[in-house]
UniProtKB/TrEMBL annotation:
GO terms for molecular function: UDP-glucose 4-epimerase activity. Residues 6-256 form the NAD-dependent epimerase/dehydratase domain. SUPFAM superfamilies: NAD(P)-binding Rossmann-fold domains (SSF51735). The lineage of its organism: Bacteria, Pseudomonadati, Pseudomonadota, Alphaproteobacteria, Sphingomonadales. It comes from Croceicoccus mobilis. This is UDP-glucose 4-epimerase. Gene3D superfamilies: NAD(P)-binding Rossmann-like Domain (3.40.50.720), UDP-galactose 4-epimerase, domain 1 (3.90.25.10). It catalyses: UDP-alpha-D-glucose = UDP-alpha-D-galactose. Belongs to the NAD(P)-dependent epimerase/dehydratase family. It comes from the Bacteria.
């Protein structure tokens, strides 16, 4: 397969930077577009062309398509925090829906044949601990989820009307870091459970809150399907290759392990990995949360050669902890440079 350059929007962010690594490791030429609103320039590997800008800047986007001879887009750029979307829904409908629509239009006008979109398991809404297949009706429960569901619809309608080949990947809960610690979750003020728990373990926070103990789950806390970010990144490369192998495809696939852990189970695993109990505080439910989300991943397994490599909660936490420790050193050296 003759690779063409892939534009990764949001490639300086957590998941996008791992997708860049997965593509580069497999020999794909990659170009990154990111506005650095939550991403980091240093997260983009040396040698990967980087454009700082917004996906809504169509002049810039079309210039990148031409200059770099882009043949596919992986669109990660977006805003990702569920509680923030409840407080500020317009930010989410703008950054995740409106700006994605503009990017899709630029792709259509420039004849980019392949488009891969980062969606979320939260488009399914409340799931009652049963594995969700892609045929499940969508019931987005918060503005973040709705902003993604709307973009899925924009893509589906656009692909019917124009010559576009797209794949929607619905991620379950992404966690962990590159096993070689080349990248990891680096944003400040994260709300993600494993990241928050490890920050508490390393003394960057005083404790971790457990949001809600009255869900209809085995221990009353929320259940999620945690997937290692490097397995998720690999799924993108396989999805791209599947689109190329069979063009004119509209492919929507879950990416998860089909295995659920409750908040308390995750925190117990964190305690085990760090070797001490992380302080916990019981709190009420968090706005926008559902009780359980669990993937049926049989379509991804049947459609692509993807196989999980890191399907182990303790390994996910171990890799995340290694990155969290490295990140501490990066931040310290940044602040020394600033103070020098
Ligand atoms: N983290 C998860 O658990 C999870 C789960 C499901 C889906 N997703 C989706 O995956 C994608 C990546 O998420 P992440 O966790 O890596 O978040 P992130 O915040 O680390 O990465 C997002 C990146 O996009 C950039 N960005 C944001 N808006 C932009 C814009 N308008 N133009 C250009 N760049 C922009 C940011 O600077 C950042 O580098 C998002 O679309 C998110 O909705 C994430
Ligand atoms: O400090 C915390 C953080 C989270 N939780 C709980 O842990 C679970 C997971 O929460 P979190 O890690 O914040 O992820 P989600 O809210 O499930 O959302 C993530 O996973 C979704 C897919 O399932 C993605 O769409 C979102 O972008 C991503 O933020 C939930 O039950 C939360 O209530 C806590 O109890 N304490």
């Amino acid at each position: 397969m003759a690779p063409f350059p892939v534009l990764v929007t949001g490639g300086a962010g957590y998941i996008g930077s791992h997708a860049v690594l997965a593509l580069v490791d497999r020999g794909w030429p990659v170009v990154v577009l990111d506005d650095l609103s939550t991403g980091f320039r240093w997260a983009v590997p040396d040698g990967v062309p980087f454009y700082e800008g917004d996906v809504v800047d169509t002049d810039l986007v079309k210039r990148i398509f031409e200059e770099q001879k882009i043949g596919a887009i992986m669109h990660f750029a977006g805003s990702i925090i569920v509680p923030e979307s409840v407080e500020n829904p317009l930010k989410y409908y703008d950054n995740n829906t409106g700006k994605s629509r503009t990017l899709i239009q630029a792709a259509v006008e420039s004849g980019i044949p392949h488009f891969i979109f980062s969606s979320t398991a939260s488009v399914y809404g409340e799931a009652e601990a049963k594995p969700l297949s892609e045929d499940e009706p969508l019931a987005p429960f918060n503005p973040y989820a709705m902003s993604k569901a709307m973009t899925e619809r924009v893509l589906a309608d656009t692909a019917k009307a124009h010559d576009m080949n797209y794949c929607v990947l619905r991620y379950f809960n992404v966690a962990g870091a590159d096993p070689e610690a080349r990248s990891g979750q680096s944003g400040v003020g994260s709300t993600h459970l494993i990241k928050v728990a490890l920050e508490a373990a390393l003394g960057k926070r005083s404790e971790v809150a457990v949001f809600g103990q009255d869900y209809a789950t085995r221990d009353g806390t929320g259940i999620r399907d945690y997937i290692h970010v490097s397995d998720l990144a690999a799924a993108h490369v396989h999805a791209l290759e599947a689109l190329i192998a069979q063009p004119a495809r509209n492919l929507t696939m879950n990416v998860g392990y089909a295995k659920g852990f409750s908040v308390l189970e995750v925190l117990d695993a964190v305690d085990k990995v760090v070797g001490k109990p992380v302080p916990r505080r019981m709190e009420g439910r968090r706005a926008g949360d559902v009780s359980a989300l669990l993937a049926d991943n049989s379509k991804l397994l049947a459609t692509t050669p993807w196989q999980p490599q890191f399907d182990n909660l303790e390994q996910i936490i171990t890799d995340a902890l290694r990155w969290e420790t490295k990140l501490q050193a990066i931040r310290e050296s940044e602040s020394q440079t600033e103070n020098a």
